Amino acid sequence: MKSSHRFPLRRQIVWGMRFFTILTSLAVGAALFTLSNQYVRANSLQAAEFNLRLVATSIETSLDSADALLNWASIDSTVRRYISQENINGTQTIAAYEAVQEKYYSSTLYSHILRFFITNENDRHLQFGPLNASAALNRTSIKQFLTKGYGMQFTTDPLLPGSPDCIALSQPVRCGKGTLHRGSTYLALDTAIITDPAAGYSLTDGSALYWEMGSRLWQIENGSLTEIENPLREVDYTLRTGSNNGVTEQTAWQGKVRLDGQKYYVVKVTLNGRSAALVQLLPANTFLLHYGVYLWLITLGIAIIWGLSFLMQHWLEWVITRPVEALQKRIETVGSGSFAPDRTVEWNNELGDIGRGINQLAENVDSLMTRRVEDERRKQELEYRMLQNEVNPHFIYNTLNSIRWMATIQHAPGIAEMVTAFARLTKSISKGTQKLVPLQEELALLNDYFTIQQYRYGGDLEIEVSRIESETLCRDCMIPRFTLQPLVENAIFHGLEPKGGHGSVLLDISTDPDTGDVLLHITDDGVGMPPEQVAHLLDEPAEGAEKAEKFRHVGLWNVNRRIRYSFGEGYGLTIESEEDVGTEVTIRLPYQQKGDTHAADITGG
């Protein structure tokens, strides 16, 4: 039922967009006016910070590679053995040399390495680099490299001609869980690892780029580093970024300084985990404020907002309002009893998914109603058949009882006994609904069947339970109904009857000592079968088989399949036969007691 006071979706969208546009225009105008004076300055500082980060990242990559090389030299077992063992042979020395040589030549820093050595600070040194003009490395000269301690330093190489500037990194080699000092690793890199990444760095007039380590400052200019007096010690920096979700990044700083009466802005990016930074100095007069341009941009921005609002309103009309109205009409149609699918509401979006869902729901309701009518019809038909079937067995039992009493009166006990046995078999077939029965009930059915066959064949046929390992097996073991009778019937009709109907069928009941399974052996001394026939007895029967052969095949296959359906593929029949000797059918069953929950789950009983 529709409400008379509804606020339609289309009107909500129109007024909502207008209100949103007004608020947005006011907010954007105020924000643009407030930020106009700072825009150019902030943008320039951010650009400088970004460019510094790019250069810093390239330098960090080189320094990280240097750390990786030093770390490898500190922990490699071959190198540590060479450094730390008291007695070392030539093979071990060559192995250590080759290991370090391979790492040296494969390093990405190969072209920037001035000197790389590993030493025990006494008489063992492994040294690499362009050292043709270098003085010798010995116990005395080693101390010149390590006097300032470990870590990263800006220094010179005292053994190369001219003592060139370099970035030196060093760390100790320790053993005994890091407590026993065994030597040192040292790596000197030329200053190109700093100047090369900064080679294409763009600077405006009056700007300068610096490399800072500790309290020292070097100007980067024309591919070289020139140390100058540090004028930036008193800068009051403001932290820009520190860490992101707990992960440390390059730390950026911004500040102001006045040099020679002129105001400068300073942007500094600190390398991650190192006491070094890149610094750019920008003069304040670089940032020109163009108020007219900013006012024009504000006006243009507001106009664009209103235009976009108009377009957004019409777009929402097409993608939301009209599809929702179509879906509303479709629901009303289904509610009125029309379940035919409407493909026009199945758009290629989420609302189309709703449309497809409504169509599917309508089809399901229609199908459910059709099935409900059909189920009611089948239910009435089944109830009629059940009422009719209740009459038929009752008539058969009464007729058989009449025959039995007539035979008794006329002193024909054999006929009476056969009729009684047949009556019990018929009653078991018609009334039995359980899929699994105790083995003793199956043996009772087999005894009734034997009674009938014994009168047919006379004394020539013998069916006997030759051995029962334990009486509890007959009481507790569960077996699919009508398992033994088809197998005994096959033994009589296809094993004994072809040789004149005389012979014996023996039943042996025991357990498998290895698995605990129940084994039922049905053995006859009939005509037997060739191996090629036995191999296919448990296969699914073929359509074109002869009637007699198909009857035997279906019986064996049926019993085998019912056992496997009830207990699993590990159970069923196995058949062994020899021509002119006889046949043995073995039934393997689990020792499944009556009432077991697992049996109920498998059989559905």
TrEMBL record:
Gene3D superfamilies associated with the record: 6.10.340.10, Histidine kinase-like ATPase, C-terminal domain
Domain of life (superkingdom): Bacteria
Main location: membrane
Pfam families: HAMP, HATPase_c, His_kinase
GO molecular function per UniProt: phosphorelay sensor kinase activity
Keyword terms of this UniProt record: Coiled coil, Kinase, Membrane, Phosphoprotein, Transferase, Transmembrane, Transmembrane helix
Protein name: Sensor histidine kinase
